[in-house]
Amino acid sequence: NAGVTQTPKFQVLKTGQSMTLQCAQDMNHNSMYWYRQDPGMGLRLIYYSASEGTTDKGEVPNGYNVSRLNKREFSLRLESAAPSQTSVYFCASRQGNYGYTFGSGTRLTVV
Amino acid sequence: DQQVKQNSPSLSVQEGRISILNCDYTNSMFDYFLWYKKYPAEGPTFLISISSIKDKNEDGRFTVFLNKSAKHLSLHIVPSQPGDSAVYFCAASGNQFYFGTGTSLTVIP
Prior knowledge:
A: mainly beta; seven-stranded mixed beta sheet; globular; B: mainly beta; six-stranded mixed beta sheet
């Protein structure tokens, strides 16, 4: 089915470990996004990529890096995980001014 | 600073009655608004949208109303069904989309 695929779905990290969250979309969308969702905070934008080859910081970029590998793939990297990065992470893609299509999320726990 | 606010964290409604979810925003430059629905362990899914040139958009049981002067939008679900129980996020578009904190709707059979 067409859509946004995120891997992994669940991950537990120790403080200081690194990991990369993968995201791929097959809808030929230009724009891709990484959000985190925390209780009482809604969805907050971490980084986005308006088109292949560009990335920009969102509202909460500290502690994260991203790579827009190609038009389909947009990865999010935590270089040194911290407990404050325990959250649910959503990747999304969008074309033009239409709404987002979201992935099913990655639940990350940093202990 | 939260640009999109959903002041009711939760709402309970009897099956068959109307559910009204509210959303307020602060930036008058926002020109496109959306509602998303989220079930546990799933990503948000698009529900309905409205452009700032309209004040109402309807899709089946779902209607979104926009009051630009009050910077307020609402989602009406009529009649409410148990399958509508989910968290609903509103979002507003400026140079990026800004999401509200969500309202958890429970429809009681």
